């Protein structure tokens, strides 16, 4: 299941996904009675799970099966957490939220007047009809368009920013040096005018 907890950053600042397929495998093993949960699975685990994957499973006792369209929904929930810096449904009862997500298509509250393309993408990812959620290629294209200046990984971007900053500093230093030389020449001229010739 895609969530912020399954996204890791490696030493090169590249995003890596963990637990890929584990939830589906655990679901099947629990359904076939090969294993059983000893403790309740925290309800927080289910907050970013697509509503269609929550239908028909025992919340707290089984893991939902993973699907690509379910991960698109989860991606939208992750975008919400990243953009607004709070967890989805942070101030609501988890039990009530899980029921309302499935039964009443509950989604996090967003200002309807917002025309930010990233927020539009996020809301499209939450579509109640899984087949109408954006495809991965559309998401990638939208993000590339929004962040067109960001190429490569974080280290590459930091190097580019530092190079740009160094060029700006060199320009400022050259400008200030020319002002200093000009001021020095003006000072020399004034001194020559004030002092008597030898």
From TrEMBL:
<feature type="domain" description="Protein kinase">
    <location>
        <begin position="1"/>
        <end position="147"/>
    </location>
</feature>
<dbReference type="Pfam" id="PF07714">
    <property type="entry name" value="PK_Tyr_Ser-Thr"/>
</dbReference>
<keyword id="KW-0456">Lyase</keyword>
<dbReference type="InterPro" id="IPR000719">
    <property type="entry name" value="Prot_kinase_dom"/>
</dbReference>
<dbReference type="GO" id="GO:0005524">
    <property type="term" value="F:ATP binding"/>
</dbReference>
<dbReference type="GO" id="GO:0007168">
    <property type="term" value="P:receptor guanylyl cyclase signaling pathway"/>
</dbReference>
<keyword id="KW-0141">cGMP biosynthesis</keyword>
<dbReference type="InterPro" id="IPR011009">
    <property type="entry name" value="Kinase-like_dom_sf"/>
</dbReference>
<dbReference type="InterPro" id="IPR050401">
    <property type="entry name" value="Cyclic_nucleotide_synthase"/>
</dbReference>
<dbReference type="GO" id="GO:0004383">
    <property type="term" value="F:guanylate cyclase activity"/>
</dbReference>
<dbReference type="InterPro" id="IPR001245">
    <property type="entry name" value="Ser-Thr/Tyr_kinase_cat_dom"/>
</dbReference>
<dbReference type="GO" id="GO:0004016">
    <property type="term" value="F:adenylate cyclase activity"/>
</dbReference>
<dbReference type="GO" id="GO:0005886">
    <property type="term" value="C:plasma membrane"/>
</dbReference>
<dbReference type="GO" id="GO:0001653">
    <property type="term" value="F:peptide receptor activity"/>
</dbReference>
<keyword id="KW-0547">Nucleotide-binding</keyword>
<protein>
    <recommendedName>
        <fullName>guanylate cyclase</fullName>
        <ecNumber>4.6.1.2</ecNumber>
    </recommendedName>
</protein>
<dbReference type="GO" id="GO:0004672">
    <property type="term" value="F:protein kinase activity"/>
</dbReference>
